[in-house]
Design a protein that fits this description.
This protein has 200 residues and is an alpha+beta fold. 34% of the residues lie in helices and 20% in strands. A 5-stranded antiparallel beta sheet has the order 3-4-5-6-7, with helices on one face. Strand 5 and strand 6 form a beta hairpin. Helix 2 packs across helix 3. The N and C termini lie far apart (81 Å). The relative contact order is 0.15.
Length: 200
């Protein structure tokens, strides 16, 4: 057998094995960069919108639990841990003025993977009913505690959910609301009812 025998390679065959030239690679990379720059802003807007929609839906679920718990707690006559319970109790120290120019009573806040909590002894039965309706009978694992949208839409960065009650001109609570809070627990965006335009 003649080992010196070689098979000739045509110019077309050798060219097929060369791959892309440097110029072709640069053109492809440039086209991909242009497409990415054009698509990225729209994708980010879409993600933020879907995250906000998720937060608004979560607020709706929380509001349903609050209204159900209030109906039950309002007719409840008894005590919890030795304290007479009152779902209508307003703790003046928990009142704050919102960016909408009216006052709310802070009832409970959930953030950093925690359940809804407050320090008002007279509202603990009410709060426990809310937790039960949300599927969390005890404090501990997270429940609706982290907003999906972390973007500042003008008032601050969302950090947690707040159950509150609107206080009317006579100083009485007239409706429940669900807000988004910032890191200092201040209400920054109302999600339910009538979600504020900044969060839509």
């Amino acid at each position: 057998m003649d080992k010196g025998l070689s098979i000739p390679v045509s110019p077309n065959d050798s060219r097929k094995n060369k791959g892309f030239s440097l110029v072709e690679l640069i053109i492809v990379i440039a086209i991909m960069a242009i497409l990415a720059a054009a698509i990225a802003p729209a994708l980010i807007r879409y993600l933020n919108k879907s995250r906000k929609a998720s937060d608004i839906e979560t607020a709706s679920v929380i509001m349903g639990a609050v209204n159900a718990a209030y109906g039950e707690a309002y007719s409840f006559e008894g005590s919890e841990n030795g304290t007479e319970q009152d779902a209508d109790h307003i703790d003046l120290g928990a009142l704050c003025t919102t960016s909408y120019g009216y006052q709310i009573e802070k009832i409970a806040i959930a953030k950093n993977n925690g359940t809804f909590t407050n320090n008002v002894a007279e509202q603990q039965h009410f709060l426990n009913l809310i937790r039960e309706d949300l599927g969390k009978k005890q404090q501990g694992a997270g429940e609706f505690s982290n907003p999906k949208c972390k973007r500042d839409s003008g008032n601050g960065v969302p950090e947690g959910f707040l159950i509150a009650r609107h206080i009317n001109a006579e100083g009485q609570g007239d409706r429940f609301e669900v807000w988004i809070t910032d890191s200092s627990d201040a209400p920054i965006y109302r999600l339910n009812p009538d979600c504020c335009k900044e969060y839509k």
